[in-house]
Amino acid sequence: MKRVVAISSLVLSMSLASMPVVLADAAGDALAQKLKAAMPGLPLTSVTPTPVAGIYEVVAGSDVIYMSADGKYMFQGVLVDFEARKNLTEARRTGIRADLLKQLKDEDTIVYAPMGTPKHTITIFTDPSCPYCRKLHAEVPELVKNGVKVRYVLYPRAGLDSPIGKSSIGIMCAKDRKAEMDKSLAGQTVNLPACDTHPLAKQLELGGQLGLEGTPYIVTESGMVISGYRPAAELLKVLDEAKKPS
What we know:
alpha+beta; five-stranded mixed sheet; 20% strand
């Protein structure tokens, strides 16, 4: 129920997406018009048929919901292709997350990169006050050594006005972000002046769009989520497995 309320609040509060809505057929178009009339602020992205007869997938912002073709019923949940053993809903969300991450520029993150072309690229949403975020940071040198490019996004869970929020702003405004990041994730207090050019407000919003519920939150280039702390060896194994042809 909590998830339903959160999504309803999100779609009602956001403005219409600027990109055109992807529609597969006349029934999808009718559903889109009905949704827009009922929820004018809905950031509708696409309305397309699912493999289940009479059921349509509706993508609104970063959320995936389902509706009956007549527009009478709407529901949330996971749609699974039982024969193929494939979670169709998560596959769709993975694609949405990948698209959202493409909007995140390297210069708005703190990058730890290997020499040459990276074997993998991951984006980590981290909170310097989070013990497991600090533990994960200790694994970053090993990840980089093995060809992983790490993009850090500071995500102070207590908000930008909290002490850790102000510290995070200072890190993003620092001349040497990596040095200050290392200090902060080593448990040292970082008090640096703020600036007006930091991207943290937008990045907190991005975390919400991605469905982030805790830190550390790791997302691959493909949009796959790896939640929580993982030792470098385990994380490398997950990344290698994910790149293998299915």
